[in-house]
Amino acid sequence: MKVPASTLRIMRNAARSTVLLRHTYNLVDLPVKVAGKSGTAELDGGATPHAWFIGFAPVDDPQVAIAVVVEGGGRGGERAAPLAGRMLALALAELGG
I need a labelling partner for 64 at 20 to 30 A (CA). Which of 73, 89, 91, 93 fits? Predict the structure, then answer.
């Protein structure tokens, strides 16, 4: 499916803004610009929610995409995003970036 460049630019900017302005700010210190979205999947019955994060890096030339789910992990920005950051850093180092 061909996605217009203008749409890709909007999506990349939105995902990067989420990292900069929301609860995934712990990804800002990585050596490359990361884009993504965290979330919390609430469960019935008051159980601790699942934490998740999806993202990619570098923003301008994506080489790695990631999805992390921590069952019963609570908030995505607090649990899943830091794990994603560590994994992205390792993957990018392996790729030479």
Answer: 73
